[in-house]
Design a protein that fits this description.
Structural class: alpha+beta
Radius of gyration: 21 Å
Number of strands: 21
Low-confidence stretches: none
Number of helices: 9
Largest sheet: 11 strands, antiparallel
CATH superfamily: Anthranilate synthase
CATH architecture: 4-Layer Sandwich
Length: 392
């Protein structure tokens, strides 16, 4: 599933799952998708973003991760965008299928609804620290600050994880529905067991128009309107958060430059209000360069300073040293790509991974020279809130 503000797509079944790994995993996925789409015969009378041939994708944060990166081509896609609804059927060329007329689509949708109308039990999953305790996390933050003060790195994004067990009979669709309803302005996604509601768009390509939103810098929402506005004002003037945000914005601009033209940036960062936190945000727009597709941009952007640090390679080395776990797909790209290379991709934040019956949730924060370990721990608690609430 891929959903925001009532628009998006739900995939049903799988025609094929394409798997990738290693340093070139995202670039290889982009090249493979070009081959698939070039060979495809497509009839698309809807012609909106997400109609026609698409694949849902999720990619590991690190090239060394044991978790595979995948593109999943669904058998059916039910979509809605800008007041239009559609159904796409995808099959191999040698399969005998009848034409998908309006009547046939209606009958198929009715069958799907009738067979999936009843949701199961709401999941009740207590989550607790896994490989890194709260004290262990604050120790890691202090070690990161030491690396920053020594000049080895300017910013590092450190994460921690919580784990729990999904009980028999629990229906994860209930939790995903809660996320979509509670965070309508976020990208709610569910791809290959990874689910969440991310506030951070990595890249969007509609036609030739490229847009991105950078989020870096976080503050807790206030208890009333006065304290809420004060919290937003403090964030907007915070030297620490503005520095962190500047690192992230420059990282995105430098990565996009070879693949997008006429890039423009918000005049200054603005405060973005979410149900549980404030973020500093900057919007970027441009035009897609000839021959590029959305996965080319994703490959160039990942990992951004917002989820790794600055300089990126040095920050990733610190992450590898201080985080005693594999992030998997947390903070990696998640989204979809269409036949013409268009797509919508977010950074997998406010998310959890279901593996067998184990649910692992992740949250992180950007560490700079004047970070305070106890405050960073509180920030991770705020960022765990969406997943904890959805599983409560």
């Amino acid at each position: 599933m891929w959903w925001r503000r009532g628009d998006g797509m739900v995939g049903i079944g799988e025609i094929e799952t394409l798997s990738f790994s290693g340093k070139t995993r995202i670039a290889e996925a982009g090249a493979t998708w070009r081959e698939v789409s070039d060979a495809a015969q497509i009839t698309d009378s809807v012609n909106v973003a997400g109609s026609g041939l698409i694949a849902f994708g999720t990619f590991a944060f690190r090239s060394t991760s044991a978790v595979p990166s995948v593109l999943i081509i669904p058998q059916l896609v039910v979509g809605h965008r800008s007041g239009q609804s559609w159904l796409t059927r995808i099959s191999f060329a040698d399969e005998e299928v009848s034409p998908l007329t309006t009547q046939a689509a209606s009958e198929l949708l009715t069958e799907l609804v009738n067979s999936n109308a009843s949701l199961g039990q709401a999941p009740l999953v207590p989550l607790s620290p896994a490989s890194l305790s709260e004290a262990g996390f604050t120790t890691a933050v202090n070690k990161a600050i030491e690396r920053i003060e020594s000049g080895k790195v300017e910013k590092v994004v450190l994460a921690r994880e919580l784990e729990g067990t999904l009980g028999t009979g629990a229906d994860l669709r209930v939790a995903i529905t809660r996320l979509a309803e509670s965070y309508p302005d976020c990208w709610t996604f569910s791809v290959d067991g990874l689910f969440g509601s991310s506030p951070e768009t990595l890249i969007t390509v509609h036609g030739k128009k490229v847009t991105a939103r950078v989020l870096a810098g976080t503050a807790k929402r206030g208890n009333d309107s006065a304290t809420d506005l004060a919290s937003a004002a403090e964030l907007a003037s915070s030297h620490k958060d503005l520095d962190e945000h500047g690192f992230a914005t420059r990282s995105v601009l430098n990565a996009l430059a070879p693949y997008a033209q006429q890039l423009t940036v918000s005049e200054s960062p603005f405060t973005l209000k979410l149900p549980n936190v404030w973020h500093l945000a900057t919007d970027i727009a441009g035009t897609l360069a000839s021959g590029s597709n959305s996965l080319d941009l994703v490959s160039a952007l990942h990992p951004t300073a917002a989820v790794a640090g600055t300089p990126t390679q040095a920050a990733v080395e610190v992450i590898d040293d201080l985080e005693p776990f594999d992030r998997g797909r947390y903070a990696g790209p998640v989204g979809w790509i269409g036949a013409e290379g268009e797509g919508e991709w977010a950074i997998a934040l406010r998310c959890a991974q279901l593996t067998d019956s184990t649910i692992t949730a992740y949250a992180g924060c950007g560490i700079v020279s004047d970070s305070v370990a106890a405050q960073e721990l509180v920030e991770t608690e705020m960022k765990f809130r969406p997943i904890i609430d959805a599983l409560s």
